[in-house]
Specification:
The protein has helices at residues 12-26, 39-45, 51-60, 81-88, 144-160, 178-191, 203-212, 224-237, 275-287, 292-307, 323-332; strands at 2-8, 31-35, 62-67, 93-99, 111-117, 127-129, 136-138, 165-170, 197-202, 219-222, 247-249, 254-256. By secondary structure, it is α/β, with parallel strands linked by helices. It folds into 2 domains: 1-94 and 240-334, Isopropylmalate Dehydrogenase (3-Layer(aba) Sandwich); 111-236, Isopropylmalate Dehydrogenase (3-Layer(aba) Sandwich), CATH 3.40.718. The protein has a 10-stranded mixed sheet with strand order 2-1-3-12-11-4-5-10-8-9, with helices on both faces. The protein is globular. The two termini are 21 Å apart. It binds 1,4-dihydronicotinamide adenine dinucleotide and magnesium ion.
Length: 334
C-alpha cells in the first residue's frame, strides 16, 4: 500500500506526523511518500499545489492531508489545493461522521454522518467582479450526473453501515432550479433503496435541529456548501473540531482530511488535538483499503485513551497533555 502524505499549513504540521506514527504502529509496511501543498508551499515553490504532488497523489490513490491556510481575500497565484486535489482524484463524496466520544464536550447519543457532495455547487469557485468593483457573482453548479453518482455512493454507504434513514438537505424553496434538481435527483436515487427511509429538510431547519436535537439525525445527504457548514456544527457534538474526522471518497481514491483547518491560533505550540486526523486516517483504512479490523483497533485505542481521561487543551485546559503525549497514549492502547 502506498500513501501520499501532505502536512500542509498550521496544525497540519503537527497532527499529520502524529497520525503517521499511529499508522506505523498498525500497518508498518505502508510506503509513505511526502509531498507539499498549501499557502506556505505557494510562498516557497510559487504554487499551492505542485505538479509533483498531484502526480504522487494520483499514483498512490490514498492521501493524508493536514490542512491548508486559505486567506479570505484574493492572493495572486493562490487557489485551494484541497479543492483542486479532491476534484483531480474524483473523490466526489466527503463523508463526515459525528459520534459521541467519552469527553465532557461530546453529546451522548449522537451518531450521525453528513455526506457532502464534493465537486460542484459554489465550490467550482467561478467568481466575477465587475469593473468598478461594486458587483460580484459566484456560479453555483448542480448537475444530474454528479448528484446521481454521489447519492448512490451515500445510499450504498448507508446500507453497508446499516443506517436506517437518509435525510436530504437542500434549499429548493428558494432555489427551485439548482437545489430543486439536487433534491429531485437525490429523491429518485433514494427510491432505488427501499430498505432505507428517506426524508428531507430545508437547510435552515436542518441547522436548527442540528443544534436542538442532533440525535434525530442518522445520515444527511447534502450539497457542498450546506454540508461544509452542517458538518462543522455537528462536530461540536462530537467533542469539537479537534475530534471531527472526514474522508473524501471516490470509486478508486481517498483523501483523509479532518474537518478542521490550519488553526493558526494554536499552531506551532504542540497542543493540537490529533484525534480528528487519526480518525480520518482510520476512515481511509476502513473505506478505501478495506481493512475493518485495523480500523476497529484504531478506534478502540482512541476511545480507550479518551476514556482514561487523557485529552488535549481544546477539550479541557485542566490536565491537558501535548499532541505528542496524547499520540503516545493512543499507540500504547493499540
Ligand atoms: P480552523 O478549523 O482552523 O479552527 C477553528 C477553531 O478550532 C480554532 O479555534 C482552532 O484552534 C480549533 N481547532 C481546529 N483544529 C484543532 C485541533 N486539531 N486541535 C485543537 N483545536 C483545533 O478554522 P479557521 O480558524 O476558521 O480557519 C483557519 C484556516 O484554515 C483558514 O485559512 C481556513 O481557510 C483554513 N481551513 C482549511 C481547511 C482545509 O484545509 N480543509 C478547512 C477549514 C479551514
Ligand atoms: Mg469546513
Amino acid at each position: 500500500m502506498e500513501l501520499c502524505v501532505i502536512l500542509g499549513d498550521g496544525v497540519g504540521q503537527e497532527v499529520v506526523p502524529a497520525a503517521v506514527r499511529v499508522l506505523q504502529a498498525v500497518l508498518p509496511d505502508v510506503r509513505l511518500h511526502y509531498a507539499n501543498a498549501g499557502y506556505d508551499c505557494l510562498k516557497e515553490h510559487g504554487t499551492p499545489l505542485p505538479d509533483e504532488t498531484v502526480e504522487l497523489a494520483t499514483r498512490c490513490r490514498a492521501v493524508l492531508f493536514g490542512a491548508a491556510d486559505s486567506p479570505s481575500f484574493p492572493v495572486e497565484g493562490y487557489y485551494s489545493p484541497i479543492i483542486r486535489l479532491r476534484r483531480h482524484l474524483k473523490t466526489y463524496a466527503n463523508v463526515r461522521p459525528t459520534r459521541h466520544l467519552p469527553v465532557p464536550t461530546s453529546r451522548f447519543g449522537v451518531d450521525l454522518v453528513v455526506v457532502r457532495e464534493n465537486t460542484e455547487d459554489l465550490y467550482v469557485v467561478d467568481e466575477q467582479t465587475d469593473a468598478d468593483g461594486g458587483r460580484s457573482t459566484a456560479q453555483k453548479i448542480i448537475t444530474r450526473d454528479a448528484t446521481e453518482r454521489f447519492a448512490h455512493l451515500t445510499y450504498q454507504m448507508a446500507r453497508r453501515a446499516e443506517r436506517e434513514r437518509v435525510t436530504i438537505v437542500h434549499k429548493a424553496n428558494i432555489l427551485p432550479q439548482s437545489d430543486g434538481l439536487f433534491r429531485r435527483v437525490a429523491l429518485e436515487v433514494g427510491e432505488q433503496y427501499p430498505d432505507i427511509q428517506t426524508d428531507e429538510l430545508l437547510v435552515d431547519t436542518a441547522a436548527y435541529w442540528m443544534v436542538k436535537e442532533p440525535t434525530r439525525f442518522d445520515m444527511i445527504l447534502t450539497s457542498n456548501l450546506y454540508g461544509d457548514i452542517l458538518s462543522d456544527m455537528a462536530a461540536a457534538w462530537g467533542g469539537g473540531l479537534g475530534m471531527a474526522p472526514a474522508l473524501n471518497l471516490g470509486d478508486d481514491a481517498a483523501i483523509a482530511e479532518p474537518v478542521h483547518g490550519a488553526a493558526p491560533d494554536i499552531a506551532g505550540q504542540g497542543i493540537a488535538n490529533p484525534t480528528a486526523m487519526i480518525m480520518s486516517m482510520m476512515m481511509l483504512i476502513r473505506h478505501h483499503w478495506h481493512l475493518p479490523e485495523v480500523a476497529d483497533r484504531l478506534r478502540a485505542a482512541v476511545r480507550a485513551t479518551l476514556s482514561d481521561g487523557d485529552h488535549t487543551a481544546d477539550i479541557m485546559m485542566e490536565g491537558a497533555i501535548s499532541t505528542e503525549m496524547f499520540t503516545d497514549r493512543v499507540i500504547s492502547h493499540l
